[in-house]
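Before we proceed, please read the two lines closing this message. Let me know whether the structure tokens fit the sequence:

…
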Amino acid sequence: MKRQPVTGPVRRGYVLFAVLIVVVVLSLVAYRYAESMSTELQVSVRASEAGETKGFASSGVHYAIGLLADPEMKNTLNGNPYDNKDLFGGIAVGDPAGKRGGGRFSLVNLSDAGTDGDRYPLRYGVADECAKLNVNSLILQDPTGETLYAALLKLTNMTEEIADAIVDWLDADETQRPSGAEAGIYQGFNPPYACKNGSISSLEELLLIRGVTPQLLFGNDRNRNGVLDAGEDDGSELNRGWSEFLTCYGREVNIDSEGLTRIDLNTADLATLSAQLTPVVGQDLSDYIVYVRSTNKAVAAAPLTAMQVAAPPANLRDLVQKIVDAKGQGTRKLSSTMTLFSTQIPLTAPPAPPGMPPNPVPVVSCPLNDPAQLQSLLSLLLDKTSASTGYELSPRINVNTAPRDVLLGLPGLIETEVDTMITTRSTLTPTDPATLSGAWIVTQAKLSADKFKVIEKYIGGRTFTYRIHSVGYFGKAGGPVSRAEAVVDVALGVPRILYYRDLTDLGRGFTDDKLPR
């Protein structure tokens, strides 16, 4: 059939072309929208998971508090909360079969120096805050600041100027030390501010002190993972600065290793004191202490003269019984348990018959002077008794965990004595009474009684305050990681969080192979 000619205007397909363009554009818009929504979903999921890991890290802090504060957990911890992977590594939160393998947290401890070049080995546990020099406590125990000043100078990179400035910041007066800084110095800063002249509330407050820098205080391990990561290597040895050795947190309650209030050696009523002491330290030492409290006749131990004779402690028994029966009151106070060391009591000599030479003076030596009795009595005396009437004591350094730099800061100690202490304590049993009281320094490390007298008020063998570094993550590798740090006081089983900080902004810090699952 012959085609008919087309009449009217010619249609060239413009509308179809326009429709195709619109379809393509809409498809692109839909694709971009879908991709954007997918990205938003991933971001939302990631943010949600990051929030969950913060919860895991927080759970780790409270988990540690529960273990440390519960007296029934002492046997489980076996005296070692510092390196215990079974209890502190890869602990599951919720269902292990849940999303990403369920939640996990690990408590890491980097505070102990390692060996063979491994400066900060990763351990699973908490850190002992009482293993550090407590700047607030040291200035309270010695308001002159000399003890704190001398201890600070033992730290690497510490100068006389900075040590003086730290003491000036903490002491109560406005008297400037030779190289220190008081209010007049800080008022000249821009902006000006006051000198604290009192206890600090956080370690970061030390950054306000003239000469103290973040590098000196926190070292080059800025993300606190015990490794020099990219951007942290400044050419010097890996270090955590003075924060490894200094603290402002601490608490010590005047109770013994069983949680009971210690016997007050300065109890006024001597009958009460005798009744409390005898079943704890034995009759001989109890009588000696009661007699010393009733009189000023105790003198420094010395070789017996020709007119003296050694007398057994039993010679005090009748005298003390008369004091107790007479309801005697203690007229002499003991400044510390160590004031009994190296002392003796000269008694009244019995009258000699007429025409005979005078009888020699009986001298009773303190039972602690006998090395054989010292081994058993000293730990009991330090643990069960106290010369302080206060319920709370100035926090002391735990000599069982303190690093070498801290021990060197104790007044009067020399390097060989500190090294002997460190070698000796590696053989100790954590739950032994001599360990918990610190008596081993004398009985096993053989530190002289005179030196122990000097450091006694600064040292102890127990801890009530811990630092917790908790890492929260998922059971399957590759997910987000959160970190939290807290300082907690667990005295008397009533825990308090003294400090808490989210460390997530420092980065994950720990690789997947370091996080147990």
